[in-house]
Amino acid sequence: MSAAGAHRWRLQLAFGLVAVFFVVELVVGLTSRSLALISDAGHMAADVVALGAALVATRIATRKDTTGRRTFGSYRAEVFASGLAVLLMLGVAVYICIEAVGRIGAEPEVASGPMLVVGALGLVINLISIALLRAGASESLNVKGAYLEVLADTLGSVGVIAAAVLVGSTGRPWWDTVVALAIALFVAVRAVLLGREVLAVLGQHAPAGMHPDEAERALSQIDGVVEVHDLHVWTLTSGMNVATAHLVTAAVGPGESAADTATILAQAADVMRERFGIEHATLQVEPSGSSACTQTSW
User: Domain named Cation efflux protein cytoplasmic: which ranges (predicted)?
Assistant: First the structure.
């Protein structure tokens, strides 16, 4: 069983808690006319998507492909779910900004009591979810992503509590709008950062923190390898990096023996796994001057 699968019950419990509270927070936010609550509810909706994607990913990872066409499996479902979370978070940020502009010059009544109660309850829910996911976060990147999402939402709950206290103590409802805009800005920034990661995966960029030139130099230093070409490295989904490369060996002269292909492949696989964290590397060994390989032009 994978690390994410072993902690699936933690994901399920956290998902249930967050999903139920999202509905409560949204309803109370609309009835109390609190933008801070509504903005935090939108952020929590992204948590629901993130946790749901983590749960789905643990199932999809072990699901057999019955079509024979998905040669890489369905691992990228997690990436598409993350993209949906990005759109949702940006939509919430835009909605809050529009509502805030509409409140300029107005003094809407904001019920600070329900805000404080729901904000405090949300903080408790987030802390419970953090405690549930912390154990698996160090073992599974899938669980870690959900853990960081809930951890960030804890700040939103703190913001709601602060807004309720300020509105209740000063009697000025615009504090609710100010805090809501702060939460919306925080959500938008996180959405953009997450969106960049999603686009990097879909664009098949090299994994973060790794440069292809470094991998090419490392492979070129293997005994018997004189050239490396057609090197490609990309991310299939979070925590799952893939690579392909052609390793050219020296031409064999009179009285010389060809380099041991099996040894070169083993050493190359070790380099990709130990130095670059790439478990799945498809490597091809070919002698110098071989006509069996044609380098790509793209």
Answer: 213-287
Tokens of 224: 């018997």
Average pLDDT over residues 157-171: 84
Separation of alpha carbons 254 and 103, rounded Å: 86
Helix, coil or strand: residue 234: strand
With residue 122 as reference, give the H or E element that holds it. helix 112-137
Which of 202, 236, 260 is where one domain is finished? 202
Rounded to an integer, the average pLDDT of 226-242 is: 88
First-to-last C-alpha distance (Å) of the chain:
39
Looking at the structure, do residues 25 and 61 belong to the same domain, yes or no? Answer: yes
- Is the sign of the CA dihedral 232, 237, 241, 243 positive or negative? negative
Determine the length of the chain.
298
Same domain membership, residue 178 and residue 32: yes
pLDDT by residue (tens digit) across 89-102?
788 788 888 877 87
User: Do 20 and 129 touch, CB atoms closer than 8 A?
Assistant: no
One domain, residues 135 and 262: no
pLDDT digits (tens, 9 = 90+) for 35-55: 878 887 887 887 788 788 778
Q: Which domain holds residue 64?
A: 3-202
